[in-house]
Amino acid sequence: MKSKKSDPLSTGKVYAAAIGYLRKNSAIFIPFFIFFIFDFISLAVLYLAPRMPLKLLFGPPIRTFWGEEFLHYPMNFLLLSQLSSLSRMVIGVVFGSLLTGMAVAMISDVYNKKQIHLKDSFKASLKRYFDLFAIVLIFTLLFYFLQKFAVWGLVKYFVSGRQRLFFVGAKLWLGPGLLCLNFILAAFIQAAFVYAIPFIIIGKNKLFKSMIKSFGLFGKFFIRTLILVSLPMFVYIPISILQSKSSILITKFFPESVLLLLILGSLISSLVIDLLVTVSTTCLYLMNEEKIGTK
Amino acid sequence: MKKLFLVFIVIFLAVVIFSGLGNDQYAIEKRFWGLQKRAEKVFTNPAASPPMELERVAGLFQAFIKKFPNNQLSLQSEFVIARLYMVKEEYDKARVQLKAVLDKYSKSQAICSEAVFLAGNSYEIEGKWGPALEQYKTIIKEYPLTLRGFSTPVYIAQHYKIKYQPDKMITAFQEAIAHYRQLADKYAGSPAAYQAEALIAQCYMALKDWPAAIAAFNATIEKFKGKVPGDGALLRIALIYKNELKDNVKAKQVLEQLIKDYPQSRFLKSAEALLKEAGGK
Known about the structure:
The complex is a heterodimer of chains A (295) and B (281). Chain A is 79% helix and 1% strand. Chain A is mostly helical and 295 residues long. Chain A contains 13 helices and two strands. In chain A, strands 1-2 form a two-stranded antiparallel ribbon.
């Protein structure tokens, strides 16, 4: 009987390689930690937005878009999740793109057994900043609008008088259903775009070529990529559920628990999810490149 | 670069410390919220909370009032203290507190009316309707143009309705109508008069005197033509014709008038649906 040859690019092997790199090269954490710091600062600023002197800057837009009540304690905590998610998007596009590029360059160096130089990785990323910025912007906007569209579609569907969609009522669809839908959307969109940054930084491809190649690689490793992207995201599900219940947190515990939850969410998102997704998918990209090269 | 980063950190920390330590409105709200949480424990289980706890919480609110005398939340605190005494069945203390509010805010009719109303409530909970009624009549007499002043005559009538005293209820509604009519004449053409006219119609509806209610609604529309849109009143008239007097022809006429006179009305959809039901277009 012939022994079954194990797949060199299996999910387990990719994770083993990724974790091995992280254990030996803790410097890979740095870009993700820097991102967490940016996110933390933005959270601190948003938390203090209803207070002087920051109220002078943030008061008018909050009053205009959401209402005066959100500038008062403890109502401001009800808006904090939404504001932090918006600020995270902006930080992700402006700084996250650059820092992810930097991380990908570092992983590539580790993979090729080169010494990691933070400055060189940063420079490599900075050189392609425009492309990185554009790709993260496209990805973020696509996710944002699809998410909005899903909410709009569901609300419109149920407001028109229909009771059920696929045997499920409005309450379930607009609560846990939306959470699941957002999770699936996030997983698929991220999986489709996840190789674009390695293609830009390592493959030295142009913006649109890297996007198309990323879709191609996602197609090639469809299940594997989905697992690599969505598995770490499962850690965030309890945080998402608690975030959607901010009002309960405020009344049953204390308003500041919303802030603590957001900090924890940011920590998990930056130092677990983004880190694992970036390192593992870049590893898969590099292992695939090597395999093609040696064929 | 390093210097720039350091400058940024220093500015950020300064803003955070400055914002976090200030005694601004937000800080006052935060403190008030903490007190409310403590009061909530007494409110949710008054029997289980010891008298010491009540005094402690009331004392905290008093300290808050002393510290921020001009803040809107201090006024709320005054009422919270009174309510705390009320749930603990210490009605005399509640009324002393409300009397203090009355003296302190004697210039504000709205605040005074609320304080007197709560004092009336305290008698009512205690089972003393006589003194409660006295307090409510004081509101009607002294603060007729406040929100509480407007609603109290109907409140008295509703009390008799709940207590199954129809004769007293009818008398109370009639007294309310007379009171509102007096206000409408005295302040003719003003928003207060409009409010009074609308309440007259509501009292007639409560008495199930449908022709009088229709006449009152029509009088309101007539008196405030060009000042206040009469679409709401027309819809009410149509509903009375359709549901109470079972006169679909008249209901149709009124609804058609509503649709014609107020094509932008927020009641348009309801009016069209009712017209369909009444056998119209």
